Amino acid sequence: MTAMGDVRRQRIDELAARAGQVPEGEGGVSLVRSAFRRLRRNPVAILGAVIVVVFLFVAAFAPWLAPRDPLAQTLLSEVRPGFIPGAQEGFPLGADQLGRDLLSRLIYGSRQSLLIGVVSTVLGAVVGMALGVLAGAFGGWVDTVVMRFIDIILSIPSLLMAISISVLLGQNQYALMIAIAVTQVPVFARLLRGSMLAQRGSDYVLAARALGVKRGRIVFGHVLPNSLSPVIVQGTLSLATAIIEAAALSFLGLGDPDIARPEWGAMLSTAQDFLSVRPELAVWPALCIIVVALGFTLLGESLREALDPKFRR
Amino acid sequence: ASSDRESGGGGEGGGAAQSGGTMVFGATGDPAMLDPAFGSDGETFRVSRQIFEGLLGNELGGTDPVPELAEDWEVSEDGLEYTFNLQQGVQFHDGTQFNAEAVCFNFDRWYNFEGLATSPSASYYYQAVFGGFASTPDTPSIYQSCEATDENTAVIRLTQVTSKFPAALALPAFSIQSPTALQEYDADNLSGAEDALTYPEYALEHPTGTGPFRFESWDRGNGRVTLVRNEEYWGEPALLDELIIRTIPDGNTRRQELQAGSIDGYDFVAPADYQSLQDEGLQVLVRDPFNILYLGFNGGNVPGTSANPALQDPRVRQAIAHAIDRDTIVSSLLPEGAEAAIEFMPPTVDGYAEDVTTYDHDPDRARQLLQEAGAEGTTLRFYYPTEVSRPYLPDPAAMFQVISQNLTDAGFTIEPVALPWNPDYLNAVQSGQADIHLLGWTGDYNDAYNFIGTFFAEASNNQASAEFGAFSAPEIFQALARADQEPDAATRTRLYQEANRLIMDYLPGVPISHSPPALVVAENVSGLEPSPLTAEVFSTVSISE
Amino acid sequence: MSIEALPPEGALRTDVPVLEVEDLSVTFARRGEQPTRAVDGVSFSVAAGETVGLVGESGCGKSVTSLAVMGLLPRRGVQVGGSVRLGGTELLGAPDRTLRRLRGAEMAMVFQDPLSSLNPTVPIGTQVTEVLVEHRDMGKKEAATEAAELLDRVGIPDPTRRLKEYPHQLSGGMRQRALIAMALACSPRLLIADEPTTALDVTIQAQILELLRELVVDSGTALVMITHDLGVVAGLCDRVHVMYAGKVIETADRHDLFARPRQPYTGGLLASVPRLDAGRGIPLTPIRGSARDAIPWAEGCAFAPRCDNAQDDCLTEVAGSTVPLEYDGPGRELRCRHPLTHPSSTAGATSSGSTASGAGR
Amino acid sequence: MTRAGEPLLQVQGLQVHFPIKRGVFVDRTVGHVRAVDGVDLAIDRGTTYGLVGESGCGKSTLGRAVLRLVEPTAGQVLFDGTDVASLRGEALRTMRRRMQMVFQDPLGSLDPRQDVESLLSEPLRAHGLGGGRAGIATRVRELLDAVGLPTAALRRYPHEFSGGQRQRIGIARAISLEPDLLIADEPVSALDVSVQAQVVNLLEELQQRLGLTYLVIAHDLAVVRHISDVVGVMYLGSLVEQAPSGALYDEPLHPYTRALMSAVPVPDPVVEERRERILLAGDLPSPADPPSGCRFHTRCPWRQETRCDDEVPVLRELAPGHLVSCHWAEEIRDGALQPRSAEEVAATQGVSVRATGVEAIESDALVQGLDEPIERR
Amino acid sequence: MLRFIVRRLLQLVPILLGLSVLLFAWLRALPGGPAQAALGERATPEAIARYNELFGLDQPIWVQYLRFLGRAVQLDFGTSSRTGRTVTTEFLERMPGTVELTLFAMVFAIGVGIPLGYLAARRHGSWLDSGAVIGSLLGVAIPVFFLAYLLRLLFAVELGWLPGSGRQEVRIDATHITNFYVLDGLLTREWDAAWDALLHLVLPGIALGTIPLAIIVRITRASVLDVVNEDYVRTANAKGLSADTVRRRHVIRNALLPVSTTIGLQTGLLLSGAVLTETVFAFGGVGSAIYDAIFTRDFAVLQGFILMLAVVYVLVNLLVDISYGLLDPRVRVR
Ligand SMILES: Nc1ncnc2c1ncn2[C@@H]1O[C@H](COP(=O)(O)OP(=O)(O)OP(=O)(O)O)[C@@H](O)[C@H]1O
Ligand SMILES: Nc1ncnc2c1ncn2[C@@H]1O[C@H](COP(=O)(O)OP(=O)(O)OP(=O)(O)O)[C@@H](O)[C@H]1O
Ligand SMILES: [Mg+2]
Ligand SMILES: [Mg+2]
């Protein structure tokens, strides 16, 4: 009885000790991690993540997954202007207009498409964010100048921009990525600037100033990290649009000049000439683009929710 | 001549061609303007060919020049004086009379172009055929004079014999236009600023010829040119009431619009669509091939040019020629009716030689040649155009990929360079930046010089054009020059054959194919005769309900 | 009918309660998350002309209780149990149409943050008149006249002009007055005020409290006053219910409660408040920890971890039952096994020793 | 620390005016928000100065101006003999080490992405204090101990703490640099009463231990009175009364102070029932267009014709250490003047009770924002 | 208000100046100058040199720029090298088509997007919600040339309901006064022409409208979700207003505020950016003109069009800001 009583007494003490203590659990939960936790609970996010991961996997292991060499014009001699060999032994989805295995090309295409998406988005984001930081950190006339510059970029049709760049830099895959990146720059710049301006007025920035923290550290250590979440969200969405943009550019003949290298956008746009012969040539890459875009967008959309301060606890 | 015209009508089993109706035809682009004298592109000529006629025309469905506004003509012994007997009772659309005066007015007009009109963008064809102007003494002209000896006889004198004459007069650029209208609407007054020519009112609003259709309107916003039947036409009047030419740049759009019935026909059918369109009951009208696609080499042998050193070795050039699988290209990439080319002009042109050196598909031989030359793994900057589809090259990218694969198989390394067709690609290729490149040519009229002369005539200083690496091959240059100035047709043919042999021995590039471009019209359209020169006339066309 | 037309005060003070809340419980059950019981078996009633206070720290369930009464909780992910009767009509489970008819007309609510509670894009006038149009079948013009009168009554000067203005053009006090005007538009029998003065300055707060006080006196409205400010309660309420972690832990008449708080929590709250009339330098005696340290009622008294009087039997495992709300003298109820004694000298008794030393460490 | 005799902080004639800008090409200043309009005060070492006043009367701005977080328009801020307004760049940064601030919103003033350790060590690192990595780590633990948080808190982020705990972190951060002056801008107004008491106790305890000097800004008179030695009452940018806290409570002289006192509810029904209330009419007028004469005359129940409207009262010392700026302070104290009711005041002032001035500035700021491209997605 | 507008208009000046310098320098820096474009496939270097001399293209670039600027301020942007007509004429002829198309696309995007976004938000988490979000995304993820093909295949070829390209049936002989074809049809009482022009807007309008549609759906959805949780909606409910009044007056009105800015921005973008859509639908607007100009190096058109579009863009944004001020009393300008 007494033993039991002691145990309970202990429990009361424990409870008393708990009051005024910080909450339990090992290690602090950072915002990123708590956002991640919320993401894991969101079925939409999971769907998006699964799609993205599957395609990343396919891209990474393309050489092992693809049944054939995506460049070999194996069935070319069977191709006729009005006829493209369909599915057959060894060619589960049939061949393309140059007798190459469509499935293998789709699989390898994920590499280039994702590469274009990632590189151009990263590039656009980095430059855009640099401009955004400039405007957001300094404000005043720097802000005005940068924002006017962004306005100027915005009022030039993105297609013209892309074309000029690929003409200036010669037509190669880097020019293509840069061209797409340039069209993303204003988006990132405005987004980051807006969000930094909002953060700049917040109390913790004032607090950092009051503490005598140096200006650079305030901008890069406080304001910037806290302004990033809309940019992250935009990033995932941009990945999707970059792939579509690449398709539009190759439709205009401004895509990757190494056209043998499979890329969904290019595949889709070349397939336009064979729609009456074999629409599958267009349907498959279009499907790939849509699904990947969907994956990134769903992920982005749920990231937005996960990073939304409203849902923070 | 008019009998030719009449016989053309019944292409489709002689069904009673109905008169009347409107035909809408899909074109790929807007005409630049409507004065053919200033024209140089196919879309301009597609329209002007319906409105205007020249002294000579083209044989219906063929490439040979036939009398049109001239009933016939005689050439003087020395080949310098042409006497044209003109059709009588011909009226321009503005009601004025067509006569020898009018003919000479036109010739003098061209010869006396001044200022901007003498720029190559304005009068390309005149300069290509006649050389310079009255106002440019530095560049002599082969045109001397035109004289209206009577109402219906025009005598044209040249300063020099040329094989181009008189066949070139069938070019739409040399259409005879109404002197009254030309003067009234200030036709020669090309103005311009900075980077553009401004065409006079005549070229935009008042093109006045003698042809079976009259110009009605040009609605640029909507991309449509409307022509109506010329009721006063001197020959067999057109069957259609109205011919509308509509611009639809995108190929798929053109096809779907035809399928949907919004248009009655269009040009530049994608080879892949020939079959399916036919299956749907549409009429695919395949033209005879009158073009050449080649893979040009930057293989100059003159020091100081930008030529690729490896390509100066004939064995390397031969290796390329042996590497290319022309038969597969023709069967897989080009429409039915395409032929593999063995030289740089189509077989139908006089001067074609059957017995040139040929280079069969033989990868082993290619590799061997390469080895002998010590050039295995040579890197070739392979240029190809984008955003374009030419009659001889329907799908540049596919062509590039297949040839590129062939060359890789033979042991070359390919570095692809893609450029938008105009001006980047043409600029780069013609200034000799490419190691190898894809280019071709559609003939303007039935003349060998129009093909091989354009490519391989001496450009300057005993060198060929930069496109072919400015190679120096005097025997080829001489052969071409001699042939061009030979008035006798038979001799000329022989000389051109010789030139072709020389060219294929030297191998400045690989001729690849002749490809038949096609138009397509709806089921209820009849009477459209495809022309190898893409010079279709619509006066024989009728459309039934 | 206008406010002036109401019968005089005495007639309304009947024994039939305007609002009866019985065993109200509200559980939030979000998908993928632990269900939380925000309100747990709360019962109280309000008679006409009576002011009942609900007090407690942030997050104890005051607002949720009021929203549950009004039927304003979201449908999805919320379970509401118990019974809420307005003048005898059961509100829980009543169809949306019925609730909408009652809300605004029979019962009304004033919210904490006057700016966010007003639609920024609609003129004040419209926001007032729409109630009149909805419940009192007035025409636009008539409603506008009435609305101006209402604004005037709650002390907004130049009401006709104000009607055309937007919320952001009004000061905080005026916005709160406008909100009150809307609540009063149909002379409701029940008014719930959820922290109506928290966002306001003291001088304005005093104006608003005065207004509410007049209202109860003049029109006999039953008022539920929700606040965490014990000072406000002391000045306004007849009966007070102290809430903690979703349950009522002490109920008493205003005088009783402040004179002799029985729940250690109530005592702690009173001791925490610095008083204008107390001297400088005497340390305050806060409750240790914060409301976040509550344990589930099922495990024992939720306040136990912060309570200095806590004993073994505050825990369910020992006592065998949850701490019940029991009769504690006339008009009083208490949920505590070890209440404060000698309440006459509360401040002194509890301030010494353990509470102070337990604080802030 | 050396010149023990003189006050640590002296503020003289401090003005902070925010320009209201508008213009076509270049912004022109069309007016000023007189957020702080000529304030003199002095705080002795080791004492607490409490500042009260209605929302928008310029308390925070005053606090910020002292720290040079906003630029004063005029006046001097002498901190330990140095004029803070004259400092630039690095010197200012160094000076800030000795003056620290605790903010009203505990969550908002902590960077949500920093854990507590980084929050607390950042000021040390910024000033090169703490003696290296190990030194900083020890110091951070000491700080946590000083504000009563366990070491387990180090790895956690602000959003994981309760309001009171967050405010403790804010306080720990502020005292990490061992400042001489701590400005606490409404340190407890966001907290529950029970927690508020903990924080107030903590502040007092720290003051005793570290010999801190406080400037505590609050709108809650009771809290201010509880912890302050001297209390200043602000109205519309200027001090209207200043006195030792006991004296102020016992005998408020300024009508505004009186009204304020009477408005604070006391958690005692008996007191509440007895209490005489002085209700004020209307709201705080716009600081962009303050009333003439005595700023309080538009709401003052004791207002006397013309003098109050025309003549600006000066801060007079009526009793030792008890300053007040009211023409009629003596008369009111002696009961010679009787207050009028809020309704009467409102009536005499007509529609001037409106408080649109502040709002006008707000919307104006938005208009200015409009000139920049509105950020949209 | 007036001051605000004037100020915004004056801000155009630096933008246009910067833009013109940028465009000018940039376009001239591209390889293959205007001469090459004008002279065509086999122009000789001499011919190009002569052309350059003729048009002053051999002069220092800043001289060329100043000359350009001098004429540009008089709204003279030179002549199109492709059509030989003045850029201003071209623009006035092309812009109406683009305006009609943009309006149609936006009407489509708004008409479908707002109700869809609203429903998605009200049924948050339901299949309708996911369907709306994913569905609107599909339109975005399909490149427009393929979407155009599919739309035409279904509505023009298979069903034959709608015209698949162009601005008006070429067989109709309509009078054009303003070049707004629908308007022209109404003005001249050629009802069939107006109806036909309207029908021609449908497919390109849908293709063009999918992206704004997706954005509008998402923003409406997010915004409605925000607004229904606002305190004032709770107040409105507490007042016992009918569900309909709450929705109309309190939810939708406020939810549309952020949507309205998006609409404005998207309108601005569409007005300048429908290059691909107009091209694949052979729709004679500024987009297809820019497309042609790009591929023919028609510098005068590019410069002139882009500068004029920048003006349009800024004006549309100004309009948006003004209307935002009208919609939201909080940012109302005096
Ligand atoms: N929509 C909701 N979903 C989940 N939990 C909720 C919701 N609304 C309230 N709660 C929870 O219910 C509890 C009671 O909240 P309530 O708003 O009633 O507190 P309160 O007493 O009004 O506090 P305050 O004084 O801060 O207004 C809190 O723990 C809160 O987290
Ligand atoms: N950066 C600024 N620009 C323009 N006006 C400002 C600025 N900061 C403050 N103000 C104005 O100055 C006045 C005083 O503001 P301040 O924040 O100092 O008041 P406060 O007394 O701290 O009020 P609260 O109790 O609400 O915090 C207000 O009218 C405010 O609108
Ligand atoms: Mg609440
Ligand atoms: Mg403040």
UniProtKB/TrEMBL annotation, chain A:
BP GO terms, sorted: transmembrane transport
PANTHER family (alphabetical): OLIGOPEPTIDE TRANSPORT SYSTEM PERMEASE PROTEIN APPC (PTHR43386), PEPTIDE ABC TRANSPORTER PERMEASE PROTEIN (PTHR43386:SF25)
Cell compartment(s), UniProt: Cell membrane
Protein name (Swiss-Prot/TrEMBL): Peptide/nickel transport system permease protein
Pfam families: BPD_transp_1 (PF00528), OppC_N (PF12911)
Gene3D superfamilies for the chain: MetI-like
A GO CC annotation given for this chain: plasma membrane
InterPro entries, sorted: BP-dependent_transpt_permease (IPR050366), MetI-like (IPR000515), MetI-like_sf (IPR035906), OppC_N (IPR025966)
PROSITE patterns, sorted: ABC_TM1
Major subcellular location class: membrane
Sequence intervals crossing the membrane: 44-66, 114-142, 149-168, 174-192, 282-303
Source organism: Geodermatophilus poikilotrophus
Similarity-based family: Belongs to the binding-protein-dependent transport system permease family.
Topological relation to the membrane, as annotated: Multi-pass membrane protein
The entry's keywords: Cell membrane, Membrane, Transmembrane, Transmembrane helix, Transport
UniProt domain ABC transmembrane type-1: residue ranges: 110-300
TrEMBL record, chain C:
Signal peptide: none
Membrane topology: Peripheral membrane protein
Segments forming domain ABC transporter: 19-270
Record has Signal as a keyword: no
Keyword ATP-binding included in the entry's annotation: yes
Record keywords: ATP-binding, Cell membrane, Membrane, Nucleotide-binding, Transport
GO BP terms, alphabetized: peptide transport
Region of interest called Disordered, as start-end residue ranges on this chain: 336-361
Molecular functions (GO terms): ATP binding; ATP hydrolysis activity
Subcellular compartments: Cell membrane
GO CC terms: plasma membrane
Cross-referenced Gene3D superfamilies: P-loop containing nucleotide triphosphate hydrolases
Family from the record: Belongs to the ABC transporter superfamily.
Protein name: Peptide/nickel transport system ATP-binding protein
Species this chain originates from: Geodermatophilus poikilotrophus
TrEMBL record, chain D:
Family: Belongs to the ABC transporter superfamily.
Gene3D superfamilies named in the record: P-loop containing nucleotide triphosphate hydrolases
One GO-annotated biological process of the protein: transmembrane transport
Domain of life (superkingdom): Bacteria
Protein name: Peptide/nickel transport system ATP-binding protein
GO molecular function, one term: ATP binding
Source organism (scientific name): Geodermatophilus poikilotrophus
SUPFAM superfamilies, per the entry: P-loop containing nucleoside triphosphate hydrolases (SSF52540)
Domain named ABC transporter: residues: 9-261
Keywords linked to the UniProt accession: ATP-binding, Nucleotide-binding, Transport
Pfam families: ABC_tran, oligo_HPY
Coiled coil (residue ranges): none
Automatic annotation (TrEMBL), chain E:
GO cellular component: plasma membrane
Tagged with keyword Lipid metabolism: no
Main localization category: membrane
TM region(s), chain numbering: 101-121, 133-155, 197-217, 305-327
Domain ABC transmembrane type-1 per the UniProt entry, residue ranges: 95-324
Gene Ontology annotations of biological process type: transmembrane transport
Compartments, record wording: Cell membrane
Membrane topology (UniProt): Multi-pass membrane protein
SUPFAM superfamilies associated with the record: MetI-like (SSF161098)
Alphabetical list of InterPro entries matching this protein: BPD_transp_1_N, MetI-like, MetI-like_sf
Superkingdom assignment: Bacteria
Keywords, comma-separated and alphabetical: Cell membrane, Membrane, Transmembrane, Transmembrane helix, Transport
Homology family: Belongs to the binding-protein-dependent transport system permease family.
Name of the protein in its database record: Peptide/nickel transport system permease protein
Lineage: Bacteria, Bacillati, Actinomycetota, Actinomycetes, Geodermatophilales
